[in-house]
Amino acid sequence: ADSCPPPSAAISVPDTIICAGDEVVFTALASNHTDAITYEWLVNNTIVAEHSNTFRTHDLNDKDSVLCRIT
User: Fold this and answer.
1) CA–CA dist 7, 47 (Å, integer)
2) What is the pLDDT of residue 58?
3) Does the N terminus or the C terminus of the chain have fewer Cβ atoms within 10 A?
4) Is residue 39 a contact partner of residue 51, using CB atoms and an 8 Å limit?
5) Cα(58)–Cα(48) distance, rounded to whole angstroms?
6) How far is the C-alpha of 44 from the C-alpha of 63, rounded, in Å?
7) Is the pTM of this model over 0.85?
8) How far is residue 15's CA from residue 24's CA, in Å, rounded to a whole number?
């Protein structure tokens, strides 16, 4: 039987240089998904936003990790 690849997301951000206090908008582009997709945005492995393919913040610190988990 054929198996479908798991859903995945590519994250884009307009600028890779971010200064303290700057607003940053991350956008996730999902692939290999069904119409019923769920988004969870995590900063340093803590869920900070859900339900949207975009995440806005101005609270990032040096070395923070941003991840979008989709299901």
Assistant:
1) 19
2) 93
3) N
4) yes
5) 12
6) 9
7) no
8) 8
Write down the pLDDT at residue 50. 92
What six digits make up the tokens of 18? Answer: 């971010």
Strand partners, 39: 70
Q: What is the mean pLDDT of each run of 10 residues along the chain (71 residues)?
A: 70 81 89 78 96 92 89 79
Evaluate whether 15 touches 21 at the Cβ level (below 8 Å): no
| 28/34 Cα distance (integer angstroms) | 15
Task: Report how far residue 18's alpha carbon sits from residue 2's, in angstroms, rounded to the nearest whole number.
Answer: 43
- Count the alpha carbons within 13 Å of 60 in the hemisphere toward its beta carbon: 21
